Amino acid sequence: MKNLFLLFLCQFLTIVAADGECKRNDPSCSEKTIAEGDTPNSDSNQEFKCDFLKNIETSKITSEETGNTEFDKAFVFKDLKEESDTEAIRNELQSALQKMVELEHATLPLYLTGHISLDMNKSALAGINIMDVALEEMDHMHLAANLLLSIGGTPKTMDNVPKWPGHLPYGVFPDYEFNIGPLSSHQLDQYIIVEHPADGQFEHTIGNAYTNVWNLFEVLYDKLGKNETAVFSGDFNRQTKPYVTNMLQARNAICQIVDQGEGASAGKNPYIDGVKGEVAHYWRFREIREGHLIGGFDKETGEVFFNSTAIEYTTYNCSVRNKNQILNDEKGLSGIEKDQFKEYVTNIKKCNNDYREILVALDEYFGSVVNATGPQLAKAIHHMYDLINCADNAAKNPLNFTVTPEGEPKYNCLIPSFEIDYIA
Predict the structure, then answer these.
(1) Dihedral sign, CA of 358, 130, 312, 404?
(2) Are 391 and 415 in contact, with CB atoms under 8 Å apart?
(3) What percent of the chain has pLDDT over 70?
(4) How far apart are CA 115 and CA 127, in angstroms?
(5) Exposed, middle or buried: residue 407 (CB in 10 Å: 0-12, 13-18, 19+)?
(6) What angle do CA 316, 319, 325 make, to 5 degrees?
(7) pLDDT at 113
(8) What confidence tens digit (pLDDT) does each residue in 121-177 have?
(9) Residue 138 in contact with residue 14, Cβ under 8 Å?
(10) CA-based angle 174:210:53, to the nearest 5?
(11) Which tens digit of pLDDT belongs to each residue from 249-266?
(12) Distances from the Cα of 254 to the Cαs of 131, 135, 407, 419, in angstroms?
């Protein structure tokens, strides 16, 4: 398990390395800076297919309607090009992008708690699928932050830390309450909903949320006379590659996020590029749920085939317990068991503190004049190492007795609860 967590850390190192040349095992990435005279590179001008933008109906609400959620209200600005002033449109776009940062952030505890619970000796393929998705979600958070920085905003991670159980930000899947926990059929069903493409059953999807964001970019672009310099007024030195400094780069960042989540052809094709290759998040979770890898896709019928390669998983007997639940669990213990439990919980609280310190450092990092410099990044990386080791040790060194909460599953190990106010 630890090896995959280290991959998660290394992806973080690669993402934030300003020159894009860091090796995955190179801790010095944290100290690299944007080279003097460095400018947004031409590679980020490559155009993606972006099928979801072509296929999604975007005029779901008019200026006469209010909208029931933040998600719906974003559509209003599509019809208010003339009536809305530039500052209002920019503020709305910054607000939407901040919610995208929060949305991508929320997926990480959700997926990582499932991964932490796995016995990787018996769950290799399932663990790889979940960690691959988590790696890309970190990248998506980075891309959303770059989009916000590009228009003069500042990403915040501490202002709205995900609460569990809870709803996803920006009114995404508003009818569903999500919770973190060890991997199970129920958790996989949650993962599949989070990554679900828009269809007759689901409308308030992540893909549609990013369509709102793109609509707002277009409205601001038109309002400013198609002047990209005016739209992308943020200092690109506060970003890390791939930079966002024009409409094509913004579109590509959005397309990457949605295509990696849903797949090509608005989720009907499991492959990100539309041909046999990298499988999208939605379909990676479907693979685990179905118990088999995807073997192919029939473009004519739209049928997805699963092959004979089995995906199985086994979890440790772990649970995610919040602070109130832990206090109740402790009341049912006495003597040596109670003392051991309290010591074990202190270690879990230290894991939560490492998570909190990562977020504090990231806020300092995003708020710095030049993101690629400063001790904030080194601090975040240090605490990420600590969180990795803390969670790994908690799962692999369980209690020597079983806790039996009333009416709930028994457990003998805990997974960090990702509560920033329950720390040691």
Answers:
(1) positive
(2) yes
(3) 78
(4) 6
(5) exposed
(6) 160
(7) 96
(8) 999 999 999 999 999 999 999 999 999 999 999 999 999 999 999 999 999 999 999
(9) no
(10) 120
(11) 999 999 999 999 988 766
(12) 21, 17, 44, 29
Contacts of 69 (CB under 8 A, 6+ apart): 170, 171, 174, 204
Greater confidence, 332 or 71? 332
How far is the first Cα of the chain from the last one, in angstroms, to the nearest whole number?
24
Q: Both tokens of residue 208?
A: 């549609």
CA distance readout (Å), 169 to 186, 209, 243:
21, 10, 25
- The 8-class DSSP code of residue 362 comes to H
Average pLDDT over residues 279-291: 96
Q: Where are the beta strands (DSSP E) in 79-233?
A: none
**Which tokens is 257 given?**
């996020």
Structure confidence at residue 277 as a pLDDT band (50, 70, 90)? confident
Give the C-alpha separation, 250 to 258, whole Å: 13
